[in-house]
Specification:
By secondary structure, this protein is mainly alpha-helical. Among the domains are: 84 residues, no CATH class; 213 residues, MetI-like fold; 31 residues. It is 68% helix and 5% strand. The protein contains 18 helices and 6 strands. The strands form 2 sheets. Strands 1, 2, 3 and 4 form a 4-stranded antiparallel beta sheet that branches. It has a two-stranded antiparallel sheet with strand order 5-6. Helix 9 packs parallel to helix 12. It is globular and about 100 Å long. About 4% of the residues have low confidence.
Amino acid sequence: MPFNPIILWTDALIYLFVVIVLSFIGYVRNHEHLLAPWKRVGHSASGMSALTILLFFLGIGLLDTVHFRPILEHKTNQGEKIYSVEVLSLLDILVTPLRTQVEKTYSAPLASHLYAKETVELPDGKQVRAFARLEFGGAHLQNPETERMPDITWRAAKGLAVGLLVWSALTVCLGVMLARRSQQNLAQSLSAIWRRTTEIPWRTILITLLILLMLMGCVSMLATHYHVLGTDKVGQDILYQSLKSIRVALVIGTLTTLIMLPFALLLGIMAGYFRGWIDDVIQYTYTTLNSIPSVLLIAAAVLMMQVYIETHPDLFETIAARADLRLLFLCIILGITSWTGLCRLLRGETMKLRELEYIQAAHAFGVSHWRIISRHILPNVMHIVLIATVMDFSGLVLAEAVLSYVGVGVDPSMISFGTMINAARLEMAREPMVWWALLAAFGFMFTLVLSANLFADAVQNALDPRTKTLKQKNILFQHPEKKEKSSLNKTSEKITQSIATRDSHHS
């Protein structure tokens, strides 16, 4: 093979998480009582728009999770293949120009020259201080002063057109699918999407998808000839760093959740159900854990892990394996220190559920504690678990950025939003100020966190039993005239029923 597949620890856990999610989706689809609340999530326009953006980030993260070591051209004396010590991913292959086109130092977004002056030797041998041309950014231009802006405009317009074309094809495919399902023609289905008479807010989803595709098309057309978001101190593309940071953010959010959930579920339900000394021990445990500043606890654990890594270099074949182990350990520490809030919520809810009549009846009939917890308690607290999990995701992403900023986060060799912000901290103090690295990290992280929060709100409104249940639409596509007729028919039926009831009472 021209490559050697590599499965890191975080890769394996991400694959496990994907399998769990797919299994959960399959299980929910086969149970109507579980599917109904998630259908209500699909009714939320803001929630589905946020989900579309989250799926975009998730796609980038999954592409960056498939790792391998490329083969080298030369072989050993025995004729054996030699693989590179550099670990790449599918995302690295797709964005190869961004990864390989490294400049000398800083360059502004869409620039053709360096950001700072340097000594340049003229053809006649004289040396002057000037802004040197970039090796890759705008290198195809003969006269950047006059050609750069028209070239950027033309390439951006071309990218927008490509994005619009792809969006149109996807819209037609969606219209055909909905037309077949509702036994109508394509024009009627597209009209229903535009008038927002579909059960799922497809118009909002398509508008969000249009913005994403046009933005992707524009960036992809420009990124082949320019550094869209500029370069850093060592000349590395900022857009490439931002894309690579997405996986780290998703790993921190998802794997920490997987580690946190068992502690919160087990201890929270046990404390609320059994009470007594078990409740006292669990309360003492999470109270003690909360009394220790989380930053200090995480810093101490990460530093101890770093000492172990530095003293055992023979355990790691590549730098990526070492950095991945530190990332995994950071997820474990965050999971161990962040389960207390959810544990409190589950404890209170379990104590309330324990006093209900059907639970008391189960006790009276001799049902075992395990069966009561698995059949009655756990299903009735899952809405709290799902809501808290989705809402904690954004907090965990921000936690990684803060920890990396103070130097106790991910490995310095690993690109993340925290390391980008930490590097930008020093760049903001120089003259002239380098602002685009901080802006890029903030923009990507803000979009990811905002999408997660909006989707969490939709999940909370749909799964919280205290909220009103949304009425499901009976007809997927319906003309306004038909709607008026159906409403009139329902009104006449109600009037007829009331008259019949009154007559029966009089008789």
